[in-house]
Description:
The protein is of the alpha/beta class. The protein has three domains: about 1-25 and about 180-220; about 30-175, CATH 2.40.50.140; about 225-465, 3-Layer(aba) Sandwich (Rossmann fold), CATH 3.40.50.300. It has helices at about 1-25, 40-45, 75-80, 115, 180-220, 265-270, 305-315, 325-340, 355-365, 385-400, 415, 435-440, 445-450; strands spanning about 50-60, 65-75, 85-100, 105-110, 125-130, 145-155, 160-175, 225-235, 240-250, 255, 280-285, 290-295, 375, 405-410, 420-425, 430-435, 455-460, 460-465. A six-stranded mixed beta sheet has the order 12-13-14-10-15-16, sandwiched between helices. α7 packs across α8, α7 packs parallel to α9 (about 355-365) and α8 crosses α9 (about 355-365).
Amino acid sequence: MKKGRKTVMSIVSTLTFGLLFFSLNLTYSQEKQSAPEINFDLLQKVKEIFTATQEYIETIDSNGNIDIQYKIKQIPDIIKKNIDKEVSITGYIIAGGKTANKNYQYLLAKHTWDWCCQGVPPTLFTSLVINTDKPLESSRITKITLKGKFNLQVTEDESKNIIGLFTLSDVCTQKGLSKIKPKHIILLIIFALFCSIILSMFLIKFIQTKKNAQLTSKNTSKASLIVNKNLKIGYTKNIILSDINLNIDKGNLLGIIGPNGSGKTTLIRTLMGIIPPLGGISQRKKNLTFGYVMQRQTLDTLYPFSVFELAMMGRYGLIPPPYRVRKKDITKVEEALKLTDIWNLRYTPLRELSGGQKQRALIARALSSEPEVIILDEPTNDMDLKGEEAVISLIKKIHSETKAAVIIVSHLLPVVLNIADNILFLQGKNNYKIYKREELVKNNYLEKIYQVPVEIIKENNRYSIIMRGKA
């Protein structure tokens, strides 16, 4: 135990001095510009960005793309005085590059990806779109102060909603060292000491629970990734499903079918460990990694991210701060993009992708994290038959080459039938059943589940569901 405490103190001391050094290094950031300075806290206070009129101006570029700019009727006073004026702002460049118009567009944010975003794009109030005709040289972990013309751009998103974002154009930078003040040093020392105390508590707790984690790992077989016994899931005291006995083994293909409100999302979050179970036993393999593929309809294409940058988001949780992207991370992203057949689209902005290409990009992001369990949420929604078939083939290819367990969540039974070996039916009110696909087809359980005269047939190695006429 004494040896463990010495190890803890050594780690805490190293991290404290490292944190203090890194904080001091960040303090010597770019020199303030002569222009008035704004900050992200000011932008974040804006509750309603604007009131837009229905009047707009349409422009068409050389490639035939239409850009709609709405006229702004009212701007909140908190930012009105800075609109169309030269200002300076400090933040981190986290994405961007050369555009199709041979200009440059970047995303400046309050925080780095490593510390806050974890692969989720920042809000409109914590980021700025930077437009410039020259490339900006800055890494993801270095603050940069930019000076330019501040504005508010009003446009439409893919759902035809009127949205707005802050922009900075005619940008220039000015490098230099700012004078560090004594109060900054005192605050940094207090912050470092506070962090060291928190780290000490965390590491001691980690050592104390290490044996329990090892015992849990021993109880899980080598093939089993997740073991659930008499599991109860839900929120607070609201139990949605109970008595769930479900194992996820290496190489499994599991489909989850059910209407809205039947517990699909709650079950997935419990399996991933995002929310705790309300009862029963849920054990996961030690350091089990998940790759979650969200519905592509929720992907925000407003920001100027490329396919490669989206796929790299899957690696950020594996990069220990304050390190930058490593060669290994680039290699894994390249492998994921090639496996999903979109390597040729790596520099393409997300907003220019088709529905099927966006789905492949999201799958590539999940694959880049080297997951042992891949979860796909409604991967074929709103697709035609050709697109649906392409996604089904891709999922089978990924399962064959990665040997990862695959869980597909959908309300489209034919899609799940053509992918999954085992199917979990959720029907609400604590009603669920798990069937093997062969058992489901052979005994025609589908008719009993849905109480309609249906039948599953297999032709050309593909399953289909047909309605049978009444006798």
